Amino acid sequence: MVAMQLYLKLLAAATVEALLLCALSRLLFLAGYRLFGSPRHTTGGWLWHLFRAPGNLVHEMSHAVVLFATGYRVKRVRLSLRDPRGRGEVVVYGRWLRLVPDKWAWALASMSPLVAGIATLLLLMHYLIEPGAVGAFAAPSVGEALVARAFAVLSRIPWSHWPTYVILFLVLSVGSELSPSDRDVRTALPRLAAAAALACMVGAAFYIAPPGAPARTWFDATALPTLRRIITAQELALALCGATSLLLLTPVLLRDALTAQPASQYPRPRKPARTSRPRRSPPARAATSNCPPHGPHKA
To answer: What are the sequence ranges of the domains in the chain?
Structure first.
């Protein structure tokens, strides 16, 4: 029972920190876009989009890989640098396999940036912090202060080596893009809770086995260290994204406060609406298209 309680605590900590990381990722993205990303053609706009490029590549490629794996034909992957709207998109055109229903395929695609972002953070953490030091400070308690845990992670980083700053730049870029987009967030967050519940049931199935059983021994040796590494990577991203968001929000708020125009004391009189003669509507025509019945969709 002690091992199962430890597993559930680690799983709850990873889920809560993933939700917090989604919120901080969205905050960092909005703050950076407000400060540098608009208008796009300025020097700050290009710097912001260059900063987003590694994270946006992970975001869009995760959509493309999941959609292709679930049977869609991926027609185009456009990054934010090539998108005039600065969003990035994946365009799919029909299906080559129909084993997975459309609803579940798009639900998996909406979750893919978060999963791919955390996996990328885990890969970067492998080159940033010694693997032996991960388990020492990844405490299993959910109620511990996130600030103290984040500082504990930062204290293990070798700040004297220059590759550290390249990896931290990649962590920030991936962290700013791992949150699901506006179109995906409504389906991604419920799927995250469902995935956590499924992981609880999988853990309970393994812990039904008696102590010392091969399946339970393998699960303890694999699941618990993996969850500790995920928590450590998320805490590093939380610390960096939180500090950067505060640094970017301060000038944004100051700029908005200084440039805000006071409201006029007396409202302007409204002009009378013009009355126009009704126009005859043209006859309706049937819409024609060269696209097949399953036309292009955007992710």
So the answer is: 2-47+113-258
pTM for the full model?
0.74
Maximum Cα–Cα distance across the chain = 86
Positions in the chain whose pLDDT score sits under 50: 132-143, 266, 280-295
Beta-bridged to residue 78, according to DSSP, are 89
**Under a CB-based contact definition with an 8 Å cutoff, are residues 235 and 50 in contact?**
no
Residue type, 140: P
Q: In 3D, which of 43, 5, 39 has the Cα closest to residue 200?
A: 5
CA-based nearest residue to 234, from 159, 152, 175: 175
Task: Give pLDDT, residue 282.
Answer: 43
The closest alpha carbon to 123, from 230, 247, 222, belongs to 230
Element (H, E) at 116: helix 102-128
The DSSP code for 76 is E
Classify 200 as helix, strand or coil. helix
Q: What is the C-alpha R_g of the chain?
A: 24
Question: Over the chain, what is the mean pLDDT?
Answer: 76
Residues in the chain: 299
Q: Which residues are paired to 90 by β-bridges?
A: 77
Tell me how crowded residue 179 is: count the other CB atoms within 10 A of its CB. 24
DSSP state for residue 41 in the 8-state scheme: T
CA 233 vs CA 32, 178, 224: distances in Å: 22, 13, 14
Give the closest residue to 190 by CA, choosing from 67, 122, 103: 103
pLDDT of residue 139: 46
Q: How far apart are CA 157 and CA 280, in angstroms?
A: 72
CA–CA dist 196, 204 (Å, integer)? 12
Residues 222-245: tens digit of each pLDDT:
888 888 888 888 888 888 888 888
Expressed in angstroms, the distance from the first to the final Cα of the chain is: 43
Q: Would you state the pLDDT for residue 211?
A: 79
